[in-house]
Specification:
330 residues; alpha/beta; nine-stranded mixed beta sheet; two-stranded antiparallel sheet; 13 strands; globular
């Protein structure tokens, strides 16, 4: 049996499977088994796979458990050394997998690694979900080398170095299965969005490091399940950001940062309101009420997190840099 499994979580992504699965098989099967976890799709994805890709292992779930729960349940009974978590809307390239496996093989303290994530629709530019590796600024906002807020950079080779990062992209991430299972996988209360950042934060607390490997390259469509403007996506991002900070920050930092983030989220809501974007405005309101309702449960998770190492946030503020200094690149 191969040591690595490329695992695609699918939900109503038949068109993506039809378009991208052939290249995944072509460029991966020498080194990994290809597995599709289906999150109770209703678009004939399952029958399509059975007819056209009978050599691909299929794990069928009875309910849509979201990104977090879908992977947790789908991976539970798979026995591989490494899991390559891959979005269904990703085009892989020749030789994409070897550099990632080699990175984890180098050192047992490397917990996860991601490739260079470029935009499928504009292949000279980085893509929002991961770019050249992710970080979290001093106020808890994620950003990437190659992407700050919604501005992505052109790939001119400026990030062609292997570096430690704070988080690796859930769109394409190779992770040690032992570490994933030791952490009990993704936090299923997140459902989708930011669960990989929370996971990588907890990975680092166990003493692992997360890596970016530029020798590997993939192209991500983005918004394959939820569009960037989706109010549900806004809801998840705002709520899950508060979940993540409450779980992982030190008590001292949490006491001042959480109230401050409430203010910043309020300002974001007002901005949506002034632009007559009522749906995302209400999504932020709902996100906060959901967070308040889950606050005690989220606080309780702090006791469950295994921690051997303190992991600080980056000292930079991307909000200050972006809006006040006009710095729109990493």
């Amino acid at each position: 049996m191969k040591s690595c499994a490329v695992v695609i979580l699918n939900y109503n992504g038949k068109s993506f499977l039809e378009k991208f699965l052939p290249s995944v098989i072509q460029y991966s099967e020498a080194e990994a088994d290809v597995i599709v976890i289906d999150n109770a799709s209703t678009d004939n994805s399952v029958s399509f796979l059975k007819v056209n890709f009978s050599n691909v292992q299929l794990v069928k779930l009875k309910t849509n458990y979201g990104f977090a729960g879908g992977y947790n349940k789908g991976l539970a009974n798979l026995n591989y050394e490494y899991f390559l978590l891959l979005n269904s809307d990703v085009e892989v390239t020749k030789g994409w997998l070897s550099p990632l496996i080699e990175t984890l093989n180098k050192n047992s303290n490397i917990g996860s690694v991601q490739p260079k994530v470029l935009a499928y629709k504009n292949k000279l530019h980085f893509e929002h979900a991961g770019a050249a590796g992710g970080y979290v600024d001093r106020f808890g906002y994620p950003y990437c080398r190659g992407r700050v807020l919604n501005i992505t950079e052109k790939d001119s080779g400026q990030y062609n170095n292997e570096v430690n990062v704070f988080w690796t992209s859930g769109a394409c991430m190779l992770i040690r299965s032992s570490a994933f299972k030791d952490l009990q996988g993704f936090d299923e209360d997140f459902f989708a969005h930011m669960e990989e950042i929370d996971l990588c934060w907890r990975l680092q607390k166990l003493g692992y490091v997360c890596k970016f490997e530029p020798a590997s390259k993939v192209y991500h469509v983005g918004g394959g399940t939820l569009d960037m403007e989706s109010p549900f996506k806004v809801y998840l991002n705002f709520r899950n950001s508060l979940f993540m900070l409450t779980k992982n920050l030190s008590v001292v930092t949490l006491m001042w940062l959480l109230p401050f983030r409430m203010v910043l989220d309020g300002i974001a809501g007002i901005k949506f309101l002034t632009e007559a974007k009522f749906a995302p405005f209400w999504a932020i309101i709902k996100a906060h009420f959901s967070f308040y309702a889950s606050f005690l449960k989220t606080i309780g998770k702090r006791k469950q997190i295994k921690e051997t190492k303190y992991v600080p946030l980056n000292k930079r503020s991307i909000i200050y840099d972006f809006y006040l200094k006009g710095k729109k690149t990493y």
